[in-house]
Amino acid sequence: MADALAAVFQRPNFLTFVIIFLWGFYIMVTRYNLVKKLVGLYLVQTSVIFFLVSISAKKGATAPVLLSATDPVQAFQYANPLPHVLTLTAIVVGVATLGVALALCAAIYRRYGSLDEEDILKRLE
Amino acid sequence: MTFSFEILLLILLLVTAAGAILVKDLMSAILLLGSYSFFLALVWAWLGAVDVAFVEAVVGAGLATVLFLLTLFGTAPKDSRLRRPPPPIAALFALPLLGVLLLYAANDLPKFGDPTSPASTHISPAYLERSYQDTQTPNVVTSVLMDYRSLDTMVETVVIFTAGIACALLLRRQAS
Q1: How many domains is chain B built from?
Q2: Which range of residues forms the domain containing residue B175?
Q3: Which chain A residue is nearest to residue B11, measuring alpha carbons?
Q4: Which of 58-77 (A) contact B at CB < 8 A?
Q5: ipTM of this complex > 0.85?
Q6: Contact B168/A115 with Cβ under 8 angstroms?
Q7: Single pTM value for the model
Q8: Using one digit for the tens of pLDDT, what is the confidence trace for A61-85?
Q9: CB distance B170–A97 less than 8 Å?
Q10: In a domain, B122, yes or no
Q11: How far apart are CA B91 and CA A26, in angstroms?
Q12: Which in A52, B16, B36, B58 has the greatest CB count within 10 A?
């Protein structure tokens, strides 16, 4: 038990990821307002990306831009570039899908005059 | 890497995320979410992910906030239900259980910043070592994104194009 707690506090990035992920997920499940749900969705997205980027960090390493073109490259000098590439794609696609979700919200508001889930369900009946 | 500085940034991140969740006015929640994105970009720049930080500052803090605000200007800017709904029992049980499981798995993760962690040993040194001979680009992220995985990036633009078309179709006014 004490070992597990110490292991958690040695990884503060992971603890932050877990807190933001679960809180955002909770907001998505429980709140009635659709825009608030999207705020939770955005928090979940960015927390997962945050975790991936944390994996790529190396102690004492610099950004993955080569310092010299002629010297042989020492891999431990640079942060791991592969998670960065993955997350770049994930951020851009995430915001594009967020835009579609917000457009859907606007369309729902035009049709039903509310963004509250329960109001919309009442009007659907 | 100064340890305390990193903790400070993580606390700022948590505080802005909590603000975006707890604030009742949707407009302030979205502005707080923008500042959360910006602190996230700061943390990533700190971890050496400069390209990701740049994209997050432009696309996450800039574009996502603008999209949220545009939606709010067209719709109701207030969280119409001020009283928080009672949470369902399933969420109260399942989410803490998931949290405990995730934290229990923390012991199996490699140490933070460890250069010999599994993610940094298998294939990634090869990319770092070969990219300049292969692509003549000093920025390894650019060479992977635009050269090794250029088809992938091209199809990603198709995804964004589709999202743009979907937005345009959803937002067009009915002629009546």
Answers
A1: 2
A2: 131-176
A3: A16
A4: 58-66, 69, 72-73, 75-76
A5: yes
A6: no
A7: 0.90
A8: 888 888 887 778 888 888 889 999 9
A9: no
A10: no
A11: 7
A12: B36
